[in-house]
Amino acid sequence: MGVRVEESLEGFATAPIGYLEGWYVKEDSRQKGIGRELVKAGEEWARSKGCQEIASDVEKENAVSLEAHRRLGFVEYGSNEDEALFRKRI
Fold first, then answer.
1. Under a CB-based contact definition with an 8 Å cutoff, are residues 47 and 19 in contact?
2. Interatomic CA distance for residues 48 and 59, integer angstroms
3. Average model confidence (pLDDT) across the chain
4. End-to-end CA, the chain
5. DSSP assignments along the chain, one per residue
6. What span, in angstroms and rounded, lies between the C-alpha atoms of 41 and 61?
7. Higher-confidence position of 11 and 61
8. 53: number of CA atoms within 13 Å, CB side?
9. pLDDT at residue 39 above 90?
10. Other C-beta atoms lying within 10 Å of the C-beta of residue 30
11. What distance in Å separates the CA atoms of residue 54 and residue 43, rounded to the nearest whole number?
């Protein structure tokens, strides 16, 4: 998993914005809170950098990741050809 800081993103009123990418939990380790803890750590890091929001993207055909984002409080705010775009206040 990686988290970076973006100085601005289209559609966001706050800046900077944390950007969460590449988080993954192996199938046999899912539903144990591991993903939630990974995201929580990313949110805390982004908050320490002055971020009030965090963004992420998901391939549209990845139903597991789409649902995981929603369960963790992310809200879809847009999309492009291949990805759903998510945001969350932190």
1. no
2. 28
3. 95
4. 18
5. -EEEEES--TT-SSSSEEEEE-----GGGTTSSHHHHHHHHHHHHHHHTT-SEEEEEEETT-HHHHHHHHHTT-EEEEE-SSEEEEEEE-
6. 26
7. 61
8. 20
9. yes
10. 12
11. 7
